[in-house]
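DM from R.C. (forwarded with permission)

"hey, sorry to bug you on a friday — could you get me a structure for this? deadline for the figure draft is monday and I only need the backbone to look sensible"
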Amino acid sequence: MSNVDKVRTKTVPVVIDGKPHSLRYDLNAFADIESQYDDIDKALVALGKGSPTAMRVVLWAGLRHENEKLTIREVGVMFGMPEIDAISNEMTEAIESSLPELTDDQKRIIKDRKAAAQKKMDEGKVEEAKKSSGASNPQSSPLKTPGTGDGSSTRVQ
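My reply, with the result:
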């Protein structure tokens, strides 16, 4: 990040594991991300692709202002995959409001991540509605396992 003198800091509230926290991406947070990825852009690209590692690192960096001793692994147990999309929206807001000037690639990555998070949240709502109405059909999304040795798959019921 070449415009470190223009980093703006905004604290964004977030609830993780039922507890209130705040995300802050100040110079220290960006340095923490850079220490893990060697480059902020690499971290944002990985985040945009939905990398669980990037999610933990970026979330960790944004939470460290609350607890300097917080570890990346501790952050990983603070939330589950169903929560990550909601958390990523707050994380994205905090990052966007802190970066001095986003490149077109960074803007695209953040926009793509927001769209992917919204899609997953919408899909989760549809699945939840199906389950509550009893309309869920296990045949509609088969899980396959390798193992017959003849090139075919076995459906897991």
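R.C.: lifesaver. The chain has one domain: 4-156.
me: no worries. The two ends are 49 Å apart (CA to CA).
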